[in-house]
Amino acid sequence: MVKTKIRLIDIIYWLAIIAADIFVFLIIGLLLMGYDDSYDNSKGEYWSLASMNTTEKIIYICYNAWIILNIIGLAYIGRKIYRRLKYGT
Asked: Rounded to an integer, what distance in angstroms lies between the CA atom of residue 29 and that of residue 70?
């Protein structure tokens, strides 16, 4: 079993990354609230791209891209942890 040193700077680093990620989600969520306020039934189904204007489409695509980046990042971190525990490197 490999013992790892956990330094205070590492904890601060990871907390900063998590805070930045949550901040981006908050900003995108606030920007998406504009869609909720201006939704019109005559333009299409709720959350369909047809019912959004160009700005709302860009924000929606950025939101989905950010989720995909988070999933890729979690998979990468999980892979690093797995390799460190299995191989001890």
From this structure: 16
pLDDT above 70 covers what percent of the chain?
94
Nearest CA to 40 among 25, 58, 26, 52? 52
Predicted structure pTM score:
0.82
The residue range of the domain holding 83 is 8-87
Q: What's the rounded Cα separation, in Å, for the pair 67 and 61?
A: 10
Residue at 30 is within a domain:
yes
pLDDT tier for residue 43 given thresholds of 50, 70 and 90:
confident
Question: How many residues in the chain?
Answer: 89
